[in-house]
Amino acid sequence: MPMLLSVSLLMKVEKLLPESDALKIVLVYYAVAAIIVLGAYISPAQGELATNTPILLSILLLIPICLWQRNYRKETKLPRVIGGKDKETVLFWIFVLFALALSVRIPSALLFGEPYEKMPLIYLLILTILVIEKTDIAAFGFKTGNLGKSLGCGMAFWAILGGLTLSIQYIMIWGFTGQVPLQSYGITLPLLAMPFMTLCVGISEEGLFRGYMQSHLGKLYTSRQAILVQAILFGGWHFVWNLYPFDPWNMAQYVATTFLIGLVFGYFYSKTNNLVPLVLAHGLWNSVPLGIVENGTVMSHFWTFPFPHQMLVLVLPFTVSALSAVLFIKYLVRKVQPQEH
After folding, report:
1. Which pLDDT tens digit goes with each residue over 75-85?
2. What pTM was estimated for this model as a whole?
């Protein structure tokens, strides 16, 4: 039923008058959000992603938007370059999309503690690009050609940025405490989380911040300015998780961390113009740590260490990994700009 409703809404998008395009897209966006939220109320998350109805709905709702956009692109001649727009128009649409996304994200985080806004955001992005922007989605980094190379590049990028950060952190804790901070690694939860974290979280966030925002800003500002602005917005995007209960310290940490991640991801996108590696890296970043089983006694002991030691473990590993990732992007990553099929 949700998929049929989604297809019906998409068909209506094409039939209504052109001047109401923006309103149609907003209505579809909130309709899809309502489907996901209703699923969350009917079947709340039980801790296992495999039984999380809204997440399953989100993954299934990828199908109608994918089929619709393929059909739309075949019937409509769309340029594969971003058209020239004045600064006010670009900034206006960035603000509108960001505000609309937050209007669903904040209630989702407060009510359910889950990122259920991701699938509606994908609908909002794709419909805006195709119907309002009248541009092929490939111009915003959604490229499927040479997929194997793109995925391999994304996996290597995550290994350097995310994998190296985790490795250095636990080695440093081991060095400080003299005890192994890890007990084991469980593969089940990461495997269950990976589809949603990649196909929904990865596509939506990379599509909005790197694909849409950075691509547009890069036409009006320098590459560094475009990377910086999208990273600031990406960091601010993550303030919601510490709204209730209000935790300003952890909020500041999370916003700062995601801002820095946004800088590195933005630099990668500026060199490749391809979102596929970033979508995979994003999914791995969110999924792989879920399988880590820490030694609670060792970790509790470490957090009794002086504050400078704690900050060193938090800051140094990411700094080393980020610098390594920048070198990887600058010297080893080739331009991944395949022809869209």
Report:
1. 888 999 998 88
2. 0.92
